[in-house]
Amino acid sequence: MPVADLPKTELHLHLEGAAPPEFMAGLAAEKGVDLSAVIEDGMYVYTDFPHFLQTYEAVSTVLQTPDDYRRLVEAVLRHSKSEGVIYTELFLAPTLTGTSLADWPAYLDAMEAGADAVPEVECRFISTAVRHLGADMARETAEATVAHLTPRLTGWGMGGNEALFSAAEFAPAFDIAREAGLGITTHAGEFGGPESVRESLDHLRPTRLGHGVRAIEDPALVDRIAAEGIVLEVNPGSNVMLGVYASLDDHPIDRLFRSGVPVTVSTDDPPYFHTSMRKEYADLARVFGWTRAEFDAINRVALNAAFCDAATRARLMTRFEEATV
Ligand SMILES: [Zn+2]
């Protein structure tokens, strides 16, 4: 079996960033919105990072109602299924849906319905704060999140511009989520260096880090992450497309893995980065010589770090092991 066909667990996937271009083009056509400048030949187009953000924003404006989000979740999970993903966690951003946080419950309920339509992919949701909107908005987002928990909403995290604000300012928001029993992750160590990772670990106390790859620049930090068992949600294709590393050959995922750091593999915003889970697996096999043993190891790490209950984890592990025998 080619490694790209193995069953996969994905922990780091932004809902809007995973939107299949053909789905968004269809939704835009229904609404009479012209996206021809940003979707060409079934691909999102952009020239550099600022243009990427503009394209992302232009596409996201088409998502207007709870029902649009229901259909989006269904489209994303159908795509995940086609990539051989058996378990995925989707980052949701309550500040991006509707006109205020008061609209959030209706959107989340619609997204649950979208996930119900694709039972073949076990799915959980991670509510996220947007770092560059500041600590007050993060706290309000956490409060809105814990006030309306649904069966799949099991995690809390933070994305956005890592260069803004100190991690410590966001501790109150993370405390609210942790006290409500949510699993905790945060983006760090993507554009920020080891200090950003260390601050996030100290103040936000996540069990996982989104990216975290730049920890490699500090051997003591690598040792700490390995010793504490902090799981890295690594997105190699995303890092290369956004210029964190010049090429996959330069990417530290293999060195982190060999150092005993629990690493996993995800796609972040796959159609924007012209990647997919199959492509990530194939690329890692080609560049680092990863075989089934490495992919089995990272998938076990991912399932053990998943924000799901013990019974679901056990069922998934069985499904995974049966498929890999
Ligand atoms: Zn991300």
TrEMBL record:
Q: What is its EC number?
A: 3.5.4.4
Gene Ontology molecular function terms on file = deaminase activity; hydrolase activity, acting on carbon-nitrogen (but not peptide) bonds, in cyclic amidines; metal ion binding
Question: Per its UniProt record, what Pfam families does this chain match?
Answer: A_deaminase
List the cofactors.
Zn(2+)
Segments forming domain Adenosine deaminase: 7-320
Under the heading InterPro entries, the entry gives: A_deaminase_dom (IPR001365), Ado/ade_deaminase (IPR006330), Metal_Hydrolase (IPR032466)
Task: Extract the Gene3D superfamilies matched here.
Answer: Metal-dependent hydrolases (3.20.20.140)
Family of the protein in this entry = Belongs to the metallo-dependent hydrolases superfamily. Adenosine and AMP deaminases family.
Spell out the PANTHER family in the cross-references.
ADENINE DEAMINASE
According to UniProt, the name of this protein is Adenosine deaminase
Q: Highest lineage ranks of the organism? A: Bacteria, Pseudomonadati, Pseudomonadota, Alphaproteobacteria, Rhodobacterales
This chain is encoded by the gene named add
